[in-house]
Amino acid sequence: MAERPRVVIIGSGFGGLAAAKALRHAPVDITVLDRTNHYLFQPLLYQVATGVLSPADIAVPSRLLLRRQRNATVLLAEVESVDLETRLLQAEGGKLQIPFDYLIVAPGARHAYFGHSEWEPLAPGLKTLEDAREIRTRFLLAFERAEREPDPAEQALLLTFVVVGGGPTGVELAGILPTIARRGFKGDFRRIDPARIHVVLVEAGPRLLPTFPERLSKRAFRDLETLGVQCRTGAMVTQITEDSVYLGDERIPTRTVFWAAGNAASPLIRRMGLAVDRAGRAQVLPDLSVPGHPHVFIIGDAAAAEMTVPDVPRGHARPSGAASYVPGLATAAQQMGGHAAEGILRTLARKERLPFRYRDRGSMAVIGRNRAVALIGPLQLGGRVAFWLWLLVHIMYLAGFRNRLSVLVEWGYAYFTFRPGARLLTDLTPPPPHVATQQPPQTWPE
Amino acid sequence: MAERPRVVIIGSGFGGLAAAKALRHAPVDITVLDRTNHYLFQPLLYQVATGVLSPADIAVPSRLLLRRQRNATVLLAEVESVDLETRLLQAEGGKLQIPFDYLIVAPGARHAYFGHSEWEPLAPGLKTLEDAREIRTRFLLAFERAEREPDPAEQALLLTFVVVGGGPTGVELAGILPTIARRGFKGDFRRIDPARIHVVLVEAGPRLLPTFPERLSKRAFRDLETLGVQCRTGAMVTQITEDSVYLGDERIPTRTVFWAAGNAASPLIRRMGLAVDRAGRAQVLPDLSVPGHPHVFIIGDAAAAEMTVPDVPRGHARPSGAASYVPGLATAAQQMGGHAAEGILRTLARKERLPFRYRDRGSMAVIGRNRAVALIGPLQLGGRVAFWLWLLVHIMYLAGFRNRLSVLVEWGYAYFTFRPGARLLTDLTPPPPHVATQQPPQTWPE
Fold first, then answer.
1. What domain range includes position A16?
2. Which residues in chain B have Cβ-Cβ distances shorter than 8 Å to A419?
3. Which of B298, B328, B348 is the last residue before a domain boundary?
4. pTM: predicted TM-score of the whole model, two decimal places
5. What does the alpha-carbon distance between residue B108 and residue B303 come to, in Å, rounded to a whole number?
6. ipTM, two decimals
7. Most CB contacts within 10 A, which of A431, B80, B205, B314?
8. What is the pLDDT of residues A32-65, one digit of tens each?
9. Same domain, A176 and A301
């Protein structure tokens, strides 16, 4: 063992960074490994995906956040394998071998397509800045294509957007699309009326926002319908093609589908040789360590951490098979990061570790301008109050970011003008997959 | 002919947009075609390339800028061919055919590698937002790789940056790199000292900024050397490889090369069947129209427009073979756009067209914080005065942009903290070409 225990943290998301920060005064050498160079404020990713915010507004280099913490080193590296016995991990195609005494695994999750990985290119999900740019490109490009399209049927196809998944991400993404199209794009086109946008939100379960109380689910449904989003609950997507989403026999004609329906923990967990559940998560012990490997912790979206009954927040529903686990929220990941760090400190101090207890900080989903739902302890809020609360909480969360001021500028601009400020199409070559099939040449004007 | 004359403008850069705006009250139907959806403030592109600004800070959707102009339609389309005889152009793989009565061609320029197109993947240039992101990625990635690199020789290779081309773009890019590394990255790394950055600026001609008076060239040279940039004038690049730039027999070991050495007009000009000069530009008549095709204008970087002697700005040097042409500057393109529009209006009014006269608005290059050179009429400025003048002029130019406020926020942040606010690595898969060659596995720490 080195002079000071070596703590390696995989992932610089909410969990990994919280763990690193919680160890700032500890006599350990920390190495944070991440495949990106930034800490990403994922809850606002849908605003980058719709051009309201720029990537730099919600992402900060992780090494900048840890620069004053002299016991922490940040390395840009993709971890390929972890040997729990020899306590050695390999990264960057084996070029980098990193030994550890303690390991905190916080690699996050990707989308899950429930065995239909062929849908991924047709229905991109929203987890990274690259995802957000891909969705932004498809959203903006659909309008550009509709504008140069003479066939009204194809125009309608291009102006239909299907969002799959009625959790917070799906609700937030579906909710913002009609507002941007109707208000933000007003007057910008000559051959199409962007207000003709048609947004369909598809949820397989019986209601939207399944982790919220039923009252707020209903509120979200109503608010979305008021905004013009067609909400289809209890509807299972059975097929996605270049021009359709099928719900069983029913066909929704569309050229643009976004995926917000399921999570799968990073494949690293499986590669570590651990048993995983359907969502790719590893079961952890109450102290968040891996059974049989007390020096290895798994936290955040990659961990299946059982909640003891008193932890289940009041008012929260229990979707079958999920409710007994710590939810996949930013604050949960942060708490788990802090707890794993504390576990290491306790072991170093020869104290017994404590079981993790999730402290509910509430949850929120914004549906549109002046519309949101919020659940804080026993409090169930909707509408304008919830919206401004959401805004306040997110500005406070961003406070650690130097980007706060520019986010305020962008939000102020977007709130008063309805216009997205980062409406950029880049990387148009090679063209995205949704290229219209061969057509006879069009003449312009027809 | 349609009821109203159809004016088609190719390109929504400085020239194309100025032409469209100059026709706002004209009884014509304007179609602006562009392969991107945005108007790009190219003079600040190097700040996006170094992470100081976000793409959205310097780019605005062209349809947003033209939305109140009811006689203008914007179409996202890549033009493939133009038939000057039948007055029909083809775009989007022939799917779109657009007839015109008047055509203004303003497609801009790409980089020229002087017959060495194999250098392009090794030494990216800086013309588009994609280019800027590519350069930003390579710049940031070099430091990330150096940090995880145990071999000091490879570290030095990674921390050496060569900028080829001593015009304003090369000078501005080379000048900003050491400041960002020394001040902006200070304290962020553990195994490397970013202040060890080594920047080399290579210029084939006898001096930097060849279009400026000799005194300002010398000033720029001195300022850059003070910042730690090694300036190599009279040095021709003869070869670029994965780990070297060769100047004849001399080798500069480096993993990162940026190209700012030459322009070539869009290949569209050649595809139009016009005779082009070495820079791919078409010779135009004094009214900026194409010889034999009075209804077709070529403007901006794609036009070789001869300057009559009185147009040559005072103080400006004449680099051999270039001085008699209107310079490739934003203001020149804007003036040409306005002039082409006026030419159409005069023809519609059955008046004779006037020859284009370039009005010199001065030129500037910023070298670093508090350092710039400026040439305004007879005035030659350097240092702090020129820097603040540069800042003032650019803020004024950005005034038409809604991004002005966020640029001010970013600049204020960068000026006082030295930190680039958009220091993001995205699209790391597939890895950029400069992958280190096969190495034995490294152990961390060594």
1. 6-35+77-111+263-348
2. 64, 402
3. B348
4. 0.89
5. 9
6. 0.87
7. B205
8. 999 998 988 888 899 999 988 888 888 888 998 8
9. no
